[in-house]
Structure formats: C-alpha cells, structure tokens
Amino acid sequence: MAKILIIDDEKAIRGSLREILEYEKYTVDEATDGEEGLQMLAKEDYDVALCDIKMPKMDGIEVLEKAVQQGTNTQFIMVSAHGSIETAVEATKIGAYDFVQKPPDLNRLLVTIKNALDKSDLVEETVKLRKRIAGVSEIVGESEAISEVKETIARVAPTEARVLVTGPNGTGKELVAKWLHAQSSRAKAPLIELNCAAIPSELIESELFGHEKGSFTSAIKQKKGKFEQANGGTLFLDEIGDMSLSAQAKVLRALQEHKITRVGGDKAIKVDVRVIAATNKDLKREIEEKNFREDLYHRLSVILIHVPALKDRKDDIPRLVDKFLHDIAQEYSAPTKKITPDALTELQSFEWTGNIRELRNVVERLVIMCDAEITASDVKRFT
Question: β-pairing, 48-52 with 75-80?
Fold first, then answer.
C-alpha cells in the first residue's frame, strides 16, 4: 500500500486531504510544518509527499531542497494557494514531480498522485538495479573460451543488436547481460530483468507488458510492465526458454513493431528497448518440439554468446578462487584467507556441475570452516 506524507501547516487542509486519500486506500501521515516533514522523510520511506509551499519555520521549497540533498526517492507534489509559473518552474528544477494549486481539483490531484506513484515504483526498481550493476564483478578468466566471450561483449555492446546468451546454469549468463548493458550507450538508462521461469504463465504477460486497473481480479491499479520500465534502456529476459507460447507471440510483436499493449488495454504504447535474452535450454530442440517459436528465436539471436561451463575453463579456477576469497573477506569484514597450490589443484580436479555458482559456494564454505590457510586436506574434507 502506497504511503503518502502531507506537509502543511493548516490543520483543515491536512484533514481534508487525509480523508480523500484514505478513502482511496492510501496510507497517510501528517506533518504540521516543514521541519517536522523533513524529519519524517528521514525516518520513513514515503512514496509521495504533498508539500505546501508557504509554511512557518521552513517553506516547502527549502524542504524539497533538503530532501533532495538527503537523497530521498520520495516524489514531491508541491501545493500552494500562492503559486505562480516561476514557482512551479523552480520547484520542478529542484526535483518536484508536479505543482498543483489550492484548492486542488480532486480528479487532477488523484491522477497526479497515481502518476507520481508509477514514477516512484520505477525509480525504486532502477535504484536497486543500479546498485547491483555498480557492484558487478568483472568477468574473471584468461582461458581461450572466456576470452572469446569478453571480446564478443566488447565488440557487440556498443551496438543495438539483440543478443542471446546461452550456457548451463551457474556459468554467469546474467553477468554477461550486465556487462553488455554497462558498456552500451544505454548504460545510464535502466537495466530491467525478468526471470521468465520464476513467473507463473498466467502472470507473465502482465509482468512483461503491464496491465490496466480492473483487467483481472487482483489488478487494483494500473501497472507498467518490464518493457515500459526498460524504455530507453535494456530488458534482460532470463530463462526465456521457459516463456509460454502466448507470451512469446506478444514479445515477437513488440520486437517487430516497437510497441506494446497492456493487459486489459487497447492503446499501443511505443517502447525503445534493447532486449538481451538468456537460456540454459537448447532452443533449436525446443523449436523442433514446438515449445519455442522459430521466428522469435531468429529475432533474439542476432548475436549468440555461449558462456562455457567451468569444466571447460579449469585454468581460470585459481583466478576465480582468488577473487572469491577477496570478495568474501570484504563481505565478512575479515582478513583474506590464503590457499595452498595443492588445494587449488584439488579444486581443479572437480567437475563442477553447478559451475561458478557452485565454486563460489565451496570457497565460502572453506573460508568459514578453515583456519588462516586453506589446504588440500581442507578441500577434501569440506567438499
């Protein structure tokens, strides 16, 4: 449920707004002046703040400035009976979502709040993804197979070509997608991810294309799908081999026409999205078995990048282990543990059916269970 903060020194205004917003099923808090509002914004995560401009102690413009300086993601809607074009422009430049005059037109206010909430949802998801991207690990390894992957990324990333990333589970397909985005001209725009295997088939179209309010039982408000959220950026469709045929048809149409339609809607919405897809399945076999559309496969696989299994790049294991030892030490705020050459040789002897993900888990287990230096006997004991 969306949380809204009303910052206004007039009790009657606060009461009227609260009554309207609670009727619309929003959670509402009140601040009696700018100072109190700023304190509440620092303590709680609000989706939207309705902020009066003319207030004692601290006016609304100053509240907005300080909130922006504090890094809040709250969408500000400035409200004033003494508004002017200059004030509205100033507030927008500082970071306000919109400006409405008192007494506000009820329908316009509710529409503005709804639109601000849509932006708040998108900003929150973008912030999360950018934090993940900022911490993206380098693609570790110098083996011939992984060097070819890195060279392909460097060549393909600056283009607009769609990419299909293949390889077994745990090999780092998601990391390849993140690097393709990070080295592209779209790097400052969102990277939006959808794991097609994790979403029930009856909900996948809503996740991809969004839905209109009332389009199905639980659609209590309009929602933007991943295509709209990724507009101007990159959409990463992980495990695309598990997508339903119905959704495949609509994805194909979106790629062909650069337009989508929300579930329950009839309006075509233009989208500018670069699609990167990944799968651990043999899509050509899936096509033969009528589980995957051949026309979609050809749309997605302009460029093919195959991420090798760890058993096919065992020369990279020492470098990967060194990186994991360093990363885990940072996570645990502890000294980096050493590993003996014979322990590395022992690790290189395994088949690693879970690939890099399994290796990382084993290294973490060894860090926890072993003393300052990890030996071959430790590897045998704890793997």
Answer: parallel
Tokens at 224, concatenated: 């933007």
| Closest to 347 measured CA to CA, from 360, 331, 334 | 360
> Within its chain, how far is the Cα of 325 from the centroid?
27
Q: What is the pLDDT of residues 258-277, one digit of tens each?
A: 999 998 888 999 999 999 99
Both structure tokens of 212? 């209109």
Looking at the chain, which runs of residues are DSSP E strands?
3-7, 27-31, 48-52, 75-80, 98-101, 163-166, 191-195, 234-238, 259-260, 269-270, 274-279, 303-306, 338-339, 373-374
Residue 301, classed as helix, strand or coil, is coil
Looking at the chain, how many residues does it have? Answer: 383
Rounded CA-CA distance 236/239 in Å is: 10
Strands 259-260 vs 75-80: parallel, antiparallel or unpaired: unpaired
- Number of Cβ within 10 Å of residue 312's Cβ equals 16
Q: Would you state the structure tokens that stand for residue 72, as one six-digit string?
A: 């809040």
Q: Flag whether pLDDT at 196 surpasses 90.
A: yes
pLDDT in tens, 161-172: 999 999 999 999
Beta bridge partners of 166: 279, 306
40, 13 Cβ separation under 8 angstroms: no
pLDDT for 125 equals: 66
Q: Going edge to edge, which strands form the sheet with 274-279?
A: 191-195, 234-238, 274-279, 163-166, 303-306
| Cα three-residue angle 125-129-133, rounded to 5 degrees | 170
Report the C-alpha gap between 36 and 34 in whole angstroms. 5
Q: Average pLDDT, stretch 25-52?
A: 92
DSSP string, 223-260: B--HHHHTTTSEEEEETGGGS-HHHHHHHHHHHHHSEE
Residue 137: pLDDT band with limits 50, 70, 90:
low
